[in-house]
Amino acid sequence: SAVISQKPSRDICQRGTSLTIQCQVDSQVTMMFWYRQQPGQSLTLIATANQGSEATYESGFVIDKFPISRPNLTFSTLTVSNMSPEDSSIYLCSGTAGLTRNTEAFFGQGTRLTVV
Amino acid sequence: GQNIDQPTEMTATEGAIVQINCTYQTSGFNGLFWYQQHAGEAPTFLSYNVLDGLEEKGRFSSFLSRSKGYSYLLLKELQMKDSASYLCAVRSDYKLSFGAGTTVTVRA
User: Fold this and answer.
1) Residue A41: per-residue pLDDT
2) Are B93 and B103 contacting, i.e. CB atoms less than 8 angstroms apart?
3) Residues of A in contact with B50 (CB under 8 A)
């Protein structure tokens, strides 16, 4: 499967600031997704990153808080805006290389964000 | 909505077998995936089921019953390196919904 390089791997940020997380895939992928994983909890889908158009957000997530870009088929960014301590979590990007049913999703290494 | 349940923790002895159950109620179904996640690392793909029955892959096997909304992951000949979290995920409309994960601890 493809490899996703995600950075930063971790960061400690002041409340009220913003952090942009980047994911670079080593080959073209059909779909890219952004997840949040809080300690001891499941991965929660934030949004589907669409190439060349606005991301599709899940219930409870909005573009103003989590703007996403995907300028091409191998790169995407997620910004966590106006951060508060409740945004402390692990953020993961994911991609799938095809649209067939058995195409598995693969993940970046994750960004561990702590907001103080 | 999506509801995916799996046990929180399991402990087993090296060389033994462990079965992790997953039950799901989802609004769509395009397959069920199992992922392994070591602490501080990304999830890695283990197995995929879309038809009823057992899929075997070396020491790992996964079973699916769509009518019962049930799957299990079977880990055989447990090794210390198998200590990790195991995530059950259901795909619908190309999106994955995850269970909370089962932390498996393998003891010597």
Assistant:
1) 81
2) no
3) 101-102
